Amino acid sequence: MTNSKFPWSLIVRFAVTVGVLVFVYVANRDGWPEFRRDLRHAHPAWLLAAFASYALTNLLGIWRWHILLDNCGARLPFAQTLRLAMSGLFTNNFLPGAMSGDVIKAIYAARAQPAKKPTVIMSIVMERLLGFAAMFIVSTALILNRYDKLCATPLTNISVHVYLALFAAGIILLALTKWTRISLVLPFWKKLPFRSWLAEAGQAYKIFIRHPACFWGGMALSALAHLFLILVFYFISLALTMNLNFFDLTAVLPFIAILTIIPATINGFGIREIAFQEFLLFAGMTATSSTALSLCGGFIIIAFGLLGGPVYLRYQTMPAQKLPNHSR
Description:
Low-confidence stretches: 319-323
Oligomer: single chain
Strand content: under 5%
Distance between the termini: 46 Å
Radius of gyration: 21 Å
Largest sheet: none
């Protein structure tokens, strides 16, 4: 008898991840000796700076979530918020997509605040909303700084205009969620697969816009976190002595970030490497160098996420009724 609970989806995505990584390895087989040589001669100080920058990216994100929770009345000690967030980061190493850890965070945070479960979920939605908004604001400025150069290469030319179209579409869709009679004008509106997410985003926005300091403080933390994430890959390029212009790198990272959100592979592996190869061609980077940059960034993401492993295992082995409860 087939077990309906068997994680076929996860197994398929794991197989896809392995297949894509094998493809990346075979396609760049001639460059691996150069890759190993670059790693042996990498500057440890710059790699450490990259790890520290990624740690700051996440700590700023955790602080942002803590502020959102506090302002919506779902108060938790910062240490508890830190443990929940680190548990989510750990699961991101093994689940498909870049936002899988949010599900784990939501589950454990709701257990810690059972009376505030809807608000806790709204805080996570709002956290993502602020993160995307800050990314679009910062990234759009960096993309426009390299607009002419991006338009000179076919792939980046298409990507920059798709990116700007998505930005505009997102603003329009969020505006439409506030129109109460939209279903009369657009009959298909209720059938859109992402409509429920947009409704949740709109509800979260209404909750947190009542706290301007919280909203704009969260936006500022998101922008700062995004800048530190950019520095992760730039510091790696310095560690590997790559002649990579900072603004060329920042111009394509938004395209790569959007692609790695797609839950096709575990933690974006494989997709990220191919994206780096294709998008950094406009900056004159070889496939080997781009792959090295991407893989080193991926290993730093995994290494930091593994720090949340003991926290996640503690929650997994703790009965639900014994989980810390801070409801008021």
